[in-house]
Structures are given as C-alpha cells and as structure tokens.
Design goal:
Structural class: alpha/beta
Shape: globular
CATH architecture of the largest domain: 3-Layer(aba) Sandwich
Largest sheet: 11 strands, mixed
Low-confidence stretches: none
Bound molecules: zinc ion
Order of helices and strands: EEEEHHEEHEEEHEHEHHEHEHHHHHHHH
Number of domains: 3
Length: 394
Amino acid sequence: MLTIHQPEIIERENETVLQAKFECGNTKDILWFSTTNEFGSYLCHERGDAFLVAMLLYAMKRGEDIHILAPISARLYYTLTKHLVKVIADMFPGYHQIQIIGDIDSGNLDNAGGVGTGLSCGIDSFCTVIEHTDESCPSDYKLTHLTFFNVGASGDYGGDHARDLFHQRTEAVRPCADELQLPLVTLDSNINEILDMRFVITHTYRNVAAVLALQKLFKTYYYSSGYSLRQFELNHSDSSHYDAYTLDMLSTNATKFFSSGEIYSRVEKTDIVSIHPLSYKYLNVCVAAETNCSKCNKCQRTLVTLDLLGKLNLYNKVFNLSNYQMHRSKYFGLVLSGRKNDLMKQEIYDSIKRDHFPIPFGAYLYRYPQAIFQFGIRHCPEFIKRQYKNLKRQ
Ligand SMILES: [Zn+2]
C-alpha cells in the first residue's frame, strides 16, 4: 500500500511549498512542489490530485494500491478508476492494476481562470504559444500565463545539476515571456528524485501533476504534443505517443488539459513558428547545450526543416548557419538514411518528396555509404545516380 497524507502549505521567505508525506513499504518520504510567493496562494492543498497523479506510475510499477488521505476530484477519481489505470496496466510491461482508496469531492475549487502552457522555446512550445496568443483564438482560450517546471526536462533523475540547469533555462526563457507580456510561473519539485524513472516515459504525468499542484490557478492548460494525432499509439516508451488520451483522463473538475498542436506534423509546426519574429530571437531546440549547438540531432532536424521551408536565413541569430552549410549534405543524408526508424525524419522526407525539394547531391553519399566500399570511390557516382533515379520513382 502507498499511503499519501494530506498535503500542507509551507511559506518561506522566497518560496511557497506544497508537500505531502507518503509511505510505501519501508520507504517514507515527502513529495513537494515549490513556487515563488507571487503564485503561492494558487497551490492546492485542498485536494490530493497532484500527488495522486505524480505517484500513479510509481504505485502501479510496484503493484501497490494507493490510499490517499486527502479528497480526490470526482472527475479524476472516475477517469482513473474506470479508464486509465487499466490502460496503463495493459500498456506497461510488468505494471499492475491497482485500487485507489480515498474520499471523493464533487464540489468546486476556487479557480483564478488562468490559461497556461509550458514555455521551453522549442518548436512544439512556440507553436502552442503562437496559436493561443493569436487574434483568431477565442478570448477565453488565450494564454494568460506561461510556465517552466523542474519535473524532469532538465534531468530525468533530478539532483543539483538538474536544478542548476532548470534555473539557467528559466532565465533563458524569461525574456521571451516578457516580450509576450505574459507572467512566467516557475515550479520546482523533487518528483524526479522520488520517481527514479525515465522522463520520456513519464513526462505527461509529471507535468500534469505540476499543473494540478497549481490547480487553483489554471482553468485550462495546453500540453504541447510531441507527435501528431496521426502517430497516436498506446506505446509506453514515450508518453507523447498517447497523451491526447491521457490529458483528458487527467483533467479535473477545475482544470481541463488539452493536447496542443496535435493536428500538425513537426514540419507544419515549424512553418507556423517561422512566421513569428520572436522565434528568430528565442527558438531553442537543442538537447546538447544551453544554446543551439547546431550539431545535435534536434538542431540538425530543425535546420534541415527550416532549409526546406526556405526560412533558414531568418534564424542566423540562434543557429550557426555557416556550420550548417558545411554539413548540409550530411544532414540531408541522415534524413534519407534514418527515416525508416524515425517518424520525424520520415515527415521531413515526405515534405522533400511532396515539394520536389532539390536536396544536395552529396546527401546520397551518406544515404548509400556501402556503395563506397562495394564499388570504390571512382565508380561510386554512377551507382549513386542509379539509386537516385530509383528514389525519385518511389
Ligand atoms: Zn543542438
């Protein structure tokens, strides 16, 4: 049995903390969420929802029922017990279907009516921001707040390094939030250390838990999709694959989650982002460095996409374009060679084919490196030309 106690609020000089003790077997610990005092009054100690969602996979992995000593929102109790718990148990190898025991609360929470989304300044995040600050968005659904959480994106398992990176990244995105004239809500947590699980598998649950910790602030929250709805699958290896479903299952009476950008491919999102001048200053997709390294897999993918959209030169402040031009053939070659095992590369390849984009001829050297060994470099071009013609016919 995993027992989660009633959450409590602790006010400190520079932060307000929402925390709850828990016990599971021989483990006794405290899970906490902390925000600046400016937003401290929105931390929700009246419900156990944030802690229930945060610990759901933890309990199911161990086969422990959850006994929660704080009221659970009626909608969340219903969706978990009648829908999601079984879906997770069937999807995750070795996970168990568990019982959730606790009081249900059907009443209304105080809610400030905020509309939020995470601001990472990546393609998915920028696309959500653009679509929900645009004049075509109904006023009730326009963003009122942006968020930045330390729940695993800066390091799956937490620790000081991840926390330092979280603070650095917060300051990197803050000027963008300022230019958008939207307040930036930051939230720190020890969920990374408690869960001890990979972020990619659990990111939807972690971020939803963080938002539910602020359940008295947000009426609506957009979670930027990693994959399009066309790529939906119940696949435990990345919670992005099925979060269009999970987000509805984890909504409460007070806070409704939407998957955002799920109707677009990554190429289409990049096209949307590329019309917004703020992205020319702040786009940051890198997984290897604090600013875009222009070399890692995500930087490469974004540069190639901007290239085929004809928007590359708009991004000379955030990417090293001369480095890109030096490696352009290789990066296109990696799209050709890697597309079968990478949905994002396949999307780029589909756009190349659809638009008849003239990719550099040298890319085929990377597509068919075996030719160099088989035929020798002197005869290689003929072989590649034959392959190129075959490819065009596909
Ligand atoms: Zn990079």
